[in-house]
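Quick one before lunch.
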Amino acid sequence: MPIGHHSWLSAFRLRILHRVRRMSELQQHLRDVSTTPTGHTELARRSAGVIGLLVLCIFLGASLILARIAFTLNQDELNRSQTLVQKVFDARLETVSSTLLNFAYWDEAFEYTKDHIDLSWIARQESMGRTLLAQYALNGVLIIDPQDQTRFAYIKGQLTIDRPQTWLEGDLNGLIHKARAMSFEQQTAQAYFTVEGKPAIVWAAAIRPLSYPLDVPAERLSVIVFVDALGENSLSQMAKTFGLNNLRHDTSNTDVGLDLSTEPRIRLTWDVTRPGDALLMVMFPMLVLSIFIFSFITWHLLRRSIKAARQIDLSHEAMLKSEARFRDVAEASSDWIWETNAHLTVNYLSDRFGTTTGLNVNECLGKSLQELLLFDQNEFMALAHSSLRHNKPIPCRHTDVNGRERIGNLLVRRIDTQGVVSGYRGTVSDITDDIEAKAYILHLSQHDAVTGLPNRTHAYEILQEKLAHDLTEHTGFALLYVDISGFQQVNDALGHSAGDRILSKVGQRLRQIVGPDSFVARLGGDEFVILTAPLSSTALSTLCETLLDAFEQPITASEQELRLGLCIGVAQAPVDSNDSQELLRLADIALHEAKANGRRTWRLYNAEMKKRIQERRQLEQDLKQALRNDELRLVFQPRFDIASSQLIGAEALVRWEHPERGMLSPAVFIPMAEETGLIVELSDWVMHHACLEANRWDASVFVSVNLSCIEFKRSDLVDRIRQVLARTGLSPSRLELEITESVMIDNAEGAREFMIELKRLGVKLSMDDFGTGYSSLSYLSQYPFDGIKIDRSFVMNLADPTANNQAIVKAIVALGQSLSMRVTAEGVETQEQLDALATLDCDQAQGYFLGRPMPPEHLREQIAALSWPAAH
Ligand code: C2E
Ligand code: CA
Ligand code: CA
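Model of the calcium ion complex:
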């Protein structure tokens, strides 16, 4: 993991640590406040309900109390006015009664009214009546004689006689008798009468002497009667005097009233002021208003508090979520969290500590941080007290419960409480696995999985490291470039897993031979490199020979014993070069030379090799030019039918007319063209010109063109030939393609498919240089060849009966016949050879004896003759 990544992570971890601690404190607080996340809102809602109910109760209560007060006030006022009226009335009765008594106890009147009334005296008393009426607001004053006759009546300001009986409706006689009966008591008789439809109070008292005792019986007494009609005037005067409102006589049963008499029914009523109603009128609207205002304020406050409560609930919920999130992160992280006091005594360890170290968290609390971890305390303090909040990890080590050492990165922050350092906290990330993984990855990146040997990258590193020192001839070393020849074929034949096992064994064998002082690496494929310790030239050649010898021993893989060849190219440092790339290149040049010299060789690099390489490279460049500058030529070598001695075809052979080096043989440039891939372009040129030339020949003569095995490795082969035929217009049956055995060895199945397709085009195929390769005779039957060209080497000493070539040629001819393939003998140089071939029943022949490769115009002439060369 890169450092940058680490510090970023560390910062993140510390932030989380801080958050987690803060969160858990907060959460504790919140847990105290409420248990459920929606608790506050619910609580506020419930209180709102209760408060609403309370307000309603207060309102109802206040209304009741107000109504009650109003009722009481009204009632009190009613009672008061009733009492007042009663008192007023009583007082009136009393006043009138005592006034009447004053008149009744009257000596003079007694003398004039006993037994019978002296009318003349009565007449003189008119003023008395007027005075009484006026002074006491009476309506009438009567004097009744002992015979119950009214002798004096002063009614409504007029003196009348004999009227009272009609004016006063009631039992006047009864009242008079009662008054006489009470003449010995100081009292008056009272009764209620009706006067002109209005109620009236009537008092009566017997007239008796004041200054002497009554000496006559009551029947002889006259009676004085006062009438007080409760008319409007009288009542309104009474009302005025005592502050009563609308005092009146009313027999309807109102709740306010004073019943004076039942027969006749006399009832006084008046308008009572209702102070309770007035109070209600004023207070009730005020109560309603104040309740309304109070309710509104309460509602508003409750709404706000519900809103606030919801806010609290939401933030509480968010906090719980956030806390859970950070806790998960902290737990999911591989780090553990610690906290100490100012003296580094551990007072908190996260659960991860236990998981990571296997130690018991509780047992470790109270210990010193240095007891748990090994770290540089100076660095710890420097970082903790630095003013920057950086995240530089401090390396630390500790031993886990299994006694295994673990490596960690420690991060620290100091805890400031009101400006004083009260402790430290931080994280430890266990990077042991990282480090081990890194080491493993490094090993993987430097080693080859198949052989376990160092790989190309690592080999370069080691090489550069070695070359970095100042090397002398004595401290120098050799670089051996090793190539396993034949490995590719084995790999193809036995499969990759067997190939891998072989490579592994090759690696082991190399290691074993070179010993611990040398370095062996696999560069890839079947190429290995060895860097030796300083060694003498004899020791170097001994080493190379030992290596070659060692590979004489077969290697066993997949129950098969394999004999692999070894080629070694050697370059020396600092003698040849002290540049790593150059040294490898030189060793590769030497390897090339070694390969060119056989399957089991080694070559030490020398300057000549470099020269050859340079020449070759120059030639490569030149060949590219040659194609463009039209420096290639074609020569044609004729082929004859042995039996009829007819010219039946010609093989096109390429030549290069090099501007400096003259005419070059294909043996010089064809392998190079194959290596560089130029062969395709070259071959196209050859085929094109060969076909064009063949078009000028007699139609019975075919042209034969050589194909390289490289061309069979490219998928466009068939198309190319189709195009050549199309462009030149040559009949496919007049084109023969010569293919060597190597094509089949390199790419057996693919080659067969190509051949089948080529056959479909209509061209002919022949196997060139037959007998030089590894292929067995049985091979042939599987491929659609039209003919076989027996290699020159078999024809060479055909005439020599001691060599067994005759038998071989005979066998090949027989094979060809059995497979219906025409057999051509190449390299026929003598008449004897030709004769022998004829005897062996060989079909066709080609060679210097019959015709050397010649310029096209010469061949054309010969074709025109169409006959066996006259010269032979
Ligand atoms: P090859 O296909 O076996 O061609 C026959 C070679 O044997 C020719 O050599 C020819 O000159 C030579 N030769 C013919 N008769 C005799 C004889 O009686 N005695 C002796 N000693 N040699 C004889 P050349 O032209 O130098 O070609 C060499 C090889 O180069 C050819 O061998 C062929 O494999 C390759 N080659 C030539 N031209 C081409 C080409 O156009 N394309 C490809 N791919 N290969 C070519
Ligand atoms: Ca050939
Ligand atoms: Ca040949």
